[in-house]
Amino acid sequence: MLELTQVGCRMAGRWALREISFAVPAGQAFGLSGPSGSGKSLVLAVCATLIPGYTGIVRVCGEDVRSRRSSVRRRIGYVPDAIGLDPDMTVREDLEFFAGAHGMARQAGRNAAAAALERWQMRPVADEPMGTLGRGFRQRVGLARAWLHEPQVLILDEPAGGLDAEGRELFAGALRRHLDAGGSALLGTSSADLLQWSDRIGFLVAGSLHRVAATRELVSEPAMPLSGVR
Using an 8 Å Cβ cutoff, are 197 and 186 in contact? Predict the structure, then answer.
């Protein structure tokens, strides 16, 4: 459902990504790990249609990310590393706004927002201003936004950032249901949770993909570092 072929990207006059190739089939999650500055967030931003100036080919559900940008955006749910927000907008208003941004009709957006509040256990803060929320609830809002329109492909940058134990459990359950329903996911994080959330993990170093391995292979290796490559 997501395929990268020889993807490269120059930033500030240097190659920040070099010939990245991998595929994520339906029903699977692919984790990207690597040290800070290795290019994880850049790969995800390219897949999310936010960086048009790259070489190579990126396809989502068979559609080219560059030439079919609007269509691809309807198929993906994206969570960036930093969640942008209007501090005066309530959580409910935020979700309804993003439902509209996804192209949902007003009532459908309200219904989707209400379902998201329930799914992510945010009803107690539904009418609280976003600016008053702690980091964990802000992250839940970001994840809820990505799921609103039931996308086929999730592109999640540090999805568990700031989540408490309850939030992490909610995320793990939502991800598993998404994959069981035939969706796919690309996760960017250095967290050891990649081992339980991903079917395969790719290791980025200085913009290059040095290794891709099945999770079941990695868990059998002693002291496997997620932040680098042995």
Answer: no
Domain residues for 24?
Answer: 2-82+152-218
Global pTM value: 0.92
Phi, psi of 55 (to 5 degrees): -100, 160
Pairing outcome for strands 208-214 and 200-205: antiparallel
Q: Is residue 96 part of a domain?
A: no
Continuous H helices in the chain: 40-47, 69-75, 91-101, 106-119, 135-147, 165-180, 194-197, 215-218
Q: What Å distances lie between residue 127 and 159, 163, 227, CA to CA? A: 24, 20, 39
pLDDT tens for residues 108-135?
999 999 999 999 999 999 999 999 999 9
CATH of the domain at 189: 3.40.50.300
